[in-house]
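Researcher: First entry.
Model:
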Amino acid sequence: MASTLPPKPTPEHSTATAGGMAEAGHARPRGLMRWLLTTNHKEIGSLYLIFSLTMFFIGGIFALVVRAELFQPGLQLVQPEFFNQMTTMHGLIMVFGAIMPAFVGLANWMVPLQIGAPDMALPRLNNFSFWLLPVAFTLLLSTLLMPGGGPNFGWTFYAPLSTTYAPPSTTFFILSLHIAGISSILGAINIIATILNLRAPGMRMMDMPLFVWTWLITAFLLIAVMPVLAGVITMMLMDINFGTSFFNAAGGGDPVLFQHLFWFFGHPEVYIMILPAFGIVSAIIPTFSRKRLFGYASMVYATAAIAILSFLVWAHHMFVVGLPLVAELFFMYTTMLIAVPTGVKVFNWVATMFRGSISFEPPMLFALAFVVQFTVGGFSGLMLAISPADFQYHDTYFVVAHFHYVLVPGALFAILAGAYYWLPKWTGHYPHLRLSQWHFWLSVIGVNLTFFPMHFSGLAGMPRRIPDYALQFADFNLASSLGAFLFGASQLLFVLVIIKCVRGGEKAPAKAWEGAEDLEWSVPSPAPLHTFETPPDFHPHRQH
C-alpha cells in the first residue's frame, strides 16, 4: 500500500507546485468559466456572499411591499392573495437565501484561514454546493410568474394550507427547497471534514477560534435536521400529487403531525442561523477590547449545550394546538433552559469588554448592537416560552417582533460585523469609516423603529399575516413601515462601502486590527489566492 503513495514533497516543492498551479499546465479559466469551475475556497466564499447580498435585496423588496401595504389601514396597494405571496417569499428568501448562504460564505472564506488549512477538504463538492443555490432560488422565484401565483401559505408552509388548498406552483416550491437542502447538507459535510482533518499541526480542538467551533456545531445541526425537512416536504408532495393523506384529516391524517415534523427541523434551524453569529461576535469583541476572550471553554460548551437543547424545544411553537399538559410543561421548561447557556455567552462578552481598552470601529459597533438587541429578542422569547401567556401572544405581531429581533439585529448584524471585520483581509483596504458609521446608525435606528412597535401592536391583539387591520393599530404600523423603508435604504450604503473598499481606500496591513490574534491575520492583505500551502507556525498561547 505504501509503495503506491506519491513521494512526500519538501516544503519548497509544495509551495512551488501549489503556488504555480495557475502558471503551469493547469491554466486557470478566465471570465465566466473561472467562477463556474472554481474550487478555491476564497472565490466560492465570495460567490456565496454575493449571492446572499442579492437575495437579501430581493427578500427586502418583498418585505417593503408588505410594509407599504400596512402603511395605513384600508390602502390595498396589492391584492390580499399577492400580499400573502410576498410574506411567504420574504420569509423563505431571507432564511434560506440570505442568512444561511451568508454564513456559509463567511465559513468558506475564514474557516480554512483560521485553522491554517490550504483550502476546504472537498473543493469540487464545495463548488457543487454553491451552484445548487442559484438553481433552487431561480426555481422558487419563478413560481411568482406561474398560474395561481407563488406559495401563499407563510414561510412555515403549514398543512393543509400548503397541501389541500395550495396553488399549483407548490410542487416547484418543494423541489427548490429540496435543492437548497442538498446544498446545505453537502456544505455541512465539507465544513466538518475540513475542521476535523485540516487543522494546522499543533492546533488542538480547544485551540480553534470560536467561529470555527460554532460552525462545526452548526454543521452537525444541519446534517441532523435537513433530512427531516426533506421528509416533511416529500410527504407534502405525496399529499398534493399522489392522493396520500399524511396531513389531511379527512383521509385519516393529522395536520398537527406536520407541525411536529416542521418545527423539529425549524427550531434547530433558528440556531443554525444564530450560532455562527455567536462565533463572529466572539472574534470581534476580544479584538476591539484588546483582551483575550473571557471563558473560552465555557463558550464552547455553551454552544454545544444550545445545539443539544435546540432538539428538545420544538413544540413551544405549538402550545395552542392542544398538547397534553405534561408536554406543555416539558417544552416550557426546556425552552427556558436554553436561556442559561445563552446567558453564559452574553456574560462572557460583557466580561471580555470589562476594563478593556475598547475602540469603537465599525465591526465593534455592529457586535455591540448585536449583544444588546439579541438580548431583547431573547427576553421576548422567554415571554413566548410561558405557555399560558403564549395563548395570547401566539400568531400576533409580538411573535414577528421577537423573531426579527433575533434575526435582524441578531444574525444580520453579526454578518455585517463579520463583513466589516474581514473586509481588509478580503480586499486589502479598510472600509470607508464615515460611510460605515452612517450605515451602522441608520441601520440601528431603522431596525428599532421597524420592530420595536410590533411588540405593542402584538400585545394589543394584531394578528400576523393580514393585509389590512383595525384603526387602533394604525400608529404602530405607520412607525414600523417608516422604519422598514429607512432600514432598506440604509443597506444601500453598505453596497457603497463594499464598492469603495474593493476599488481602493486606506491600505490594510496583514494584521488589520490591533487586537486581532487569529491565524488569518498572519497572511497578507488581501489574502493571496493560495494560502498555507505549507502548514503555518501555530502557537496555542497566542489564542486563548
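Researcher: Second entry.
Model:
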Amino acid sequence: MASSTDTRREPGKGAKASPLEGTKLAPARRVPTWVAWVVGLILLALVCYMALFMGAATLTRDEVWGSITHKLGIFVSDDRPAPSLIRQSILFDLRIPRIVMGIFVGAGLAVAGASLQAITRNDLAEPYLLGVSYGASTGAVVALLLMPVSFALGLTGGAAIGALLSFGLLMLLLRGTGFVSTRVVLTGVLVGQFFSAITSLILVARGDAESVRGITFWLLGAMGASRANTMWIVLITVVITSLLIWMMSRYLDAMSFGDETAKSMGVPVVGVRAAVLILVALMTAATVSAVGAIGFIGLLVPHAVRMIVGSAHARLIPLSALVGAILLVFTDALARSVFQPQEVPVGVFTALLGVPLFFFILNRGQRV
C-alpha cells in the first residue's frame, strides 16, 4: 500500500484538544459522532436479539421471553408456566454468555487494531501483529496434547501462559531498541512465525486426527467455548485495557505525525508505545485464550470507522469497540446457523465478510 501511513488521513474536525485539528492526517467526519453512536447501539441491540434465536437448537420468542421473565421473577403466573430447564439452560448457559463474549472480544480486537495502527503508523497493523495469538495457540496445543490427563491446566490456562511467553520474548527482543515502529512490526512477525512453527511441529508429531481437528477448529475461533467464568475474565480485561488506551488518545493523535514531531509536542513516545504494546498484548491474550484466534476484525473495523468519524482517537477508539462488537456478534450468529447443526469456526466467517468489505474500503479510500 503506497503511502500507507503519512497520507492515509485527511483534514478532520477533531476534538478541540486533539493535535490532529486542522491537519492533513485524518479524514473529515462524514457522520456526526452522536448519529454514529445511536445507529451503532441500535444495530448492536438488533444483532444481540437476533443471536438469541439462532443456533442448532431453535428457541421461540415465547421460550426466550418466558425464560427471561421467570429468571427475573416478573410477569410470572400459573397461566404461563416456565419453559423447560433445557430451554432455559440453552439460553442462559450458552446463548447469552456467547453473545456477551462476542461483544467484548469484538470490541477488544477492534480497539487493539486501532491503537496498533496508531503507534506503528502502519495501516496493516492488527492485534495478531505482535505474535501473542500464535503464542496462545501454542500454549493451548501443549496443554491439550502433551500434558497428562490429570494435569488440571486446561485450554484457557495453557493459552494464557503461551501468550505471556510470546509477549515476554517480544519484549526481550525489543529491549534497548526504543520500540521503533518498524522494529516492532518485524519482531512481532518473527515471534509469531516462531510460535506458529512450534504449533505445527507439535500437531504433526503428537496429535491424533480427532485432537488435531478439535484444535484446528479452536485455532480458527471457537465462540462455542464461551462460559461465564472466562466471560468475566475477558470482560474485565477488555474494559480496563480499552479505557487506559482511550485515555492516551491525544498521545496517539500526536504520534500520527511521526515520532520526532510527537516528541516536540511533549509526548513520551517510547513510554506510550511500550504501554500500548503491553495493554494490547494483555487484551489479545485474554481474548485468544478464551475463544481462539479470530482475524480481520482488528484490521477492518478501524479503517471503516475512520471513514465515518475521522481519525481523532478519542472518537475512533470507542466507536471501533462498538462496531467490532456488532461485527463479531453478527458473524458468530451466522457461523452457528448457516450449516446447522454443524457449526463453522467464526474466524472463517469474519474472513469471508472481511475480505470484500476491506476491498470496498480500499476503493472508497482511493476515491476520496
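Model: Note on the second entry: The chain has one domain: 62-367.
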